[in-house]
Amino acid sequence: MELLEKTRNLLLEHYKNGNSDRLNHIFGVEEMAAYLAKIYNVDEQKARIAALMHDYCKYDDYKKIEEMLTEDEIVECRYYPFLYHAYGSAYTYKKLIGDDNDIFNAIYNHVFGRCGMSKLEEIIMISDYTEKNRKYEDCIKAREILLKGNLYEAIVYSLEHTMLHVVKNGENPHPRQLAVYNEYLEKIGVK
Hints:
Elements: H1 3-14, H2 20-39, H3 44-53, H4 62-66, H5 71-79, H6 84-96, H7 101-108, H8 119-130, H9 137-147, H10 151-168, H11 175-187
């Protein structure tokens, strides 16, 4: 069975008991990622697989996810719980589908990226934030920036607004998130 079909079937099986909103989001990310893959000359199948898997573990029990993680990752996730699903989804990809490191990294880092991202990682990260089902004002604005051909500006905008959201909720941005933000500010010539 083709890897893309296998991935889609695994996802549908995993979500068979509901959460159509999450599935709509995942399929929206897949659509945006496929579109961007064509523009930026990235393997479309890899983009689709990473997009389909990025939220695979979104609702999985943290203890179950921790069984796949290193001690350092567990400590990090306990401090930043929103990373559990990304790390768990990446390891689930490796366990059930394949061992392409670019796909693994795109899933693993989709929440806010990492310094030195590949084009696939950038595509999955920004597709997650800008897919058509996202109705938040900031997501819509980032999508407008992205669709004008400004990938790096859209990444900066998305990072800026997710960090503002984190701070507004009385939490601190992840240090890696700040580093990625600064890297992309340099890429657009702001720093």
